[in-house]
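I have been asked to look over a protein record a colleague put together. Thanks in advance; the entry in question is below.
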Amino acid sequence: MEIVVADQSRAFLYAAVLGLCMGVVYDVFSFVPLMAGKKKLRGVCDVLYCLVFLVGFLVLVHTKAGGVVRWYLPGGVVLGMVLYFCGLSDAVRFCLSLLTKGVAVMRKMIARIRDSFTCIFAPLRGRRSSHRD
């Protein structure tokens, strides 16, 4: 089975786009443990990243190369990831850090609101309702 050069070029570009997307996914999965505040979650996120990468690459190989791993596909993925980490990664990480700070502010606001409601309804906590069915 022969593959036309145009199809190979298109598959290489799709692989590069997959590499760019996987760079974004890597940055997002690296910020999830920071937002959750749990270090053990880092390993889970790494395993999930590997699974997402594997599924994405297998779908790319199956749809664009007829199920045959050709060397330009991993090369395209690596090129896409290098382009992402050299160019767009800083901007995405900055946006994710802003999101992390925003989530922290929202958590503090929700805690304050919850505390104010507990102070308001604390005297009612010990009372039983005199209303019977």
Q: What stands out?
A: The mean pLDDT is 85. The two ends are 79 Å apart (CA to CA). Residues 5-121 form one domain. DSSP finds three helices and no strands in the chain.
